[in-house]
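W.,

You were right to be curious about this one. When I first looked at the sequence I had no strong expectations either way, so I just let the prediction run and decided to look at it fresh. Below is the sequence, 296 residues in total, followed by the output.
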Amino acid sequence: MKRLFFITFSLLASLLQAAEPQLIVDAKPFHWLNPIYSNDGNSLAFSALNQNEIWSFDLLHSFKPSRAARGDSIGRRFVFEPNSQDDRIVYRIRIKAHPAEPLRLLSTSIHLFDPVTRTNNMGEILGPYLFENSVWYRFSPDGPFYDYQDRPRTAGPYWNRETQVLWVESADSTRIFTSPENEPVRGFEISPDGNYVAIVATTPEPILYLVALKTGDRTELGAGRWPSWSLNSKYLACLVDIRDETIIRVHDIEKHEHVALEIPTHYDPEYPALNPDGTKLVFTDGGRIFQIDLTE
């Protein structure tokens, strides 16, 4: 038996009954993965099961999803471009028309397919990443970030694939944090304001902690995996496996207090994502996308 819990920090500290999740997008024509909210919270973008397509859904007006982009090696990571007026999604794609077939960043409106090349790099890249109101990419997890103009950024998290050690460097390349060797790091997500990185380590169960990118200070948040930030960087969602149950936790980074919202229906949640102000959350279950209002 699986039950889904939502845990968020507030001035209350009690267990409250939550609203039933609302089915937003059925698993047709594909099973959906990796949903994210647009910058205004009125639309969703998500990938198809093959991760070579991005689809979108207008939460205010749509009755069915529509394809936004298609191409080789899109993967699971894509972001909404900051300050765009037409809900532009930024994604990675392999440029097969080029002899070297590099991976580059493109952007397109989710309402009208009008792809624009955002980078002119050669070779393989990782990304896109969204923080400090800019879109970034990198050539390897242990290398610097680059913006659209190929300007490097040294400050931030670095990760070694072989040792699974993560470290944080300041703007002057000083190492201000290094993860313990006995806690292999499996993943990390930078907060949109660029102040924190949420790190998933194994001890041997997945644990989640925050590292301040300016000071290197570490704060443990307990069990968790698949971290996902709200756009205002005030809330952090994650999955937690407890015996035969899967729960979703939403941490309030500022208040450090919590209220647990229990949903007594059976779900197997994956890919949680918060809206920009942390008041709503979507997740997938069996390829379908559900939304819940965290203020009810």
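Here's what jumped out at me. The two ends are 25 Å apart (CA to CA). And, maybe more interesting for your project: Residues 40-153 form one domain.

Coffee later to discuss?

I.
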